[in-house]
Design goal:
alpha/beta, 16% strand, globular, disordered N terminus
Length: 461
């Protein structure tokens, strides 16, 4: 069957965005909740002053692998995921991850310059991405027809930029939709427990069964012994957490090709002050930029607006285990029990329109071919229009892992400046949700930088 990326279905209204924000959060809250400790380590952040030029991959590109698949996956076949059309992004097809990621650098003094982007055709490792709750299908579970403004928007905001560091694989899966989560939110049903049984019609088991099948197909036909990073947000991060628990953590051969996991907006539980021993037995929280085979996990709340008593994120274990949510700061990689005294500058990438997020469409506009809408919301009064789909804002946002009572989370602060650039970003929800919609955009550049460093460490091993 052909799984194709369908163009824009319908444009969201403000009320729908609010509902989308709330129910997408429930998707990650159903796994546990996270955020937490981070140590004050020496920041070895690489200087990424070299900007890359945009462009598409060659039309005749192929998926090259370094060797044979791991024995446990050899011979695995999938009617669905052996078909390239069942993937939003993969290196052997022209897709939404190939281009359209140029950004305008907006400095505090209002000056702007274009930062161009292109994928690295010689990327040494792979990235396997699972998107968050984003489908507006009216059914409880989505179909396999992805939308550019839904699943496509998520991958463009949260994973496509990684193409400068790794080959990006992003499967389409039958996720619990916004409508399905709204039903749970209103008391109409429970989230259920995922299993690996995949019946013909989508049900509670389908999201994880699909992701597991896609992973096995990737490992059987595309990995070939290459290092692999997994990255996901919200529902996607919860599914990847289960995948790591079942496929990676207990299996040394799979751990040998595992580089890192980036699990945003979900929970990875650890004993207080420890790097492992809660949700994982072997995989640790990343505590140094040269670590590999480790987990980076966080959930974001604004400084001055910490998690409330019923927050879904950052809370300690609620199942009787003496565990806390882990927090690893992507902008200054550290995860020890002590909190970071000072925030670190975040390398953020936001949609070109200020008051939008991934839930508004790929870059929040779509009124022009490049997604920028030809306006400038980031400088007041506006001067030169922004003509790129994204902006990056040096010095505007800083982050640190913080503690508030028993909660552990990534604390975000906006740094006001007397210059003409705006002094803040949007995306606040309430004390249950925090800045969930911006979890990945806030530190997207840091994730790319860390993946490059971890890839080098993995290869050196």
């Amino acid at each position: 069957m052909g799984m194709t990326l369908q163009p824009h279905r319908f444009r969201t209204r403000h009320a729908l965005l609010v509902l989308l924000a709330l129910v997408s959060l429930i998707g990650s809250a159903c796994s546990d909740n996270e955020s937490g400790s981070g140590g004050d380590r020496t920041d070895r952040k690489a200087n990424e002053s070299t900007k890359e030029s945009s462009g598409s991959k060659d039309a005749d590109k192929t998926t090259e692998t370094a060797g044979k698949p791991l024995a446990r996956y050899a011979g695995f076949t999938s009617e669905t995921y052996d078909n390239p059309d069942s993937w939003l992004c993969r290196p052997d097809k022209e897709d939404i991850c190939d281009s359209g990621l140029d950004a305008t650098v907006v400095d505090a003094d209002g000056t702007m310059q274009i930062e161009t982007w292109k994928a690295n055709p010689d990327a040494p490792i792979d990235c396997f991405y699972v998107y968050p709750t984003i489908s507006r299908d009216p059914t409880k579970f989505s179909d396999m027809n992805a939308s550019e403004d839904e699943e496509g928007a998520a991958v463009v905001n949260q994973a496509a930029r990684l193409g400068s560091a790794c080959r990006v694989f992003a499967p389409i899966y039958r996720q619990r939709t916004l409508a399905g989560l709204a039903n749970v939110l209103s008391g109409g049903g429970e989230a259920g427990t995922t299993t690996t049984t995949k019946p013909g019609a989508p049900n509670e088991d389908s999201p994880y069964a699909d992701v597991l099948e896609a992973w096995k197909s990737y490992m059987a036909h595309d990995n070939g012994g290459r290092g692999v990073v997994v990255i996901g947000h919200s529902q996607g991060a919860g599914l990847l957490k289960q995948l790591l628990q079942e496929e990676v953590d207990p299996n040394e051969d799979v751990r040998d090709v595992f580089v890192a996991g980036y699990l945003a907006g979900t929970s990875v539980m650890v004993p207080d002050g420890k790097l492992t021993g809660g949700d994982f037995n072997e995989l640790e929280l990343c505590d140094d930029e040269d670590y590999d085979e480790c987990i980076v996990t966080w959930s974001t709340f604004r400084a001055g607006s910490p998690p409330g008593p019923n927050a879904f994120f950052g809370r300690p274990s609620n199942d009787g285990r003496p565990l806390r949510s882990g927090c690893v700061n992507p902008a200054k990689l550290a995860a020890r029990a002590e909190m970071q005294a000072e925030p670190s500058p975040a390398d953020s990438y936001f949609p070109a329109r200020l008051n939008t997020s991934m839930v508004s469409g790929a870059t929040g506009s779509g009124d022009t071919a490049d997604g920028s809408n030809g306006t400038n919301d980031w400088v007041a009064p506006p001067t030169t229009p922004i003509t790129t789909p994204f902006v990056t804002t040096p010095g505007l946002i800083s982050v640190r892992c913080a503690a508030y009572g028993d909660y552990r989370y990534l604390e975000m602060r906006a740094n006001a400046d007397p210059g003409p650039r705006v002094d803040d970003i949007t995306g606040d929800l309430d004390d249950k949700w925090g800045m969930h919609l911006q979890d990945v955009n806030i530190v997207m550049g840091d994730i790319v930088r860390l993946v490059k460093i971890q890839a080098a460490a993995h290869i050196a091993d």
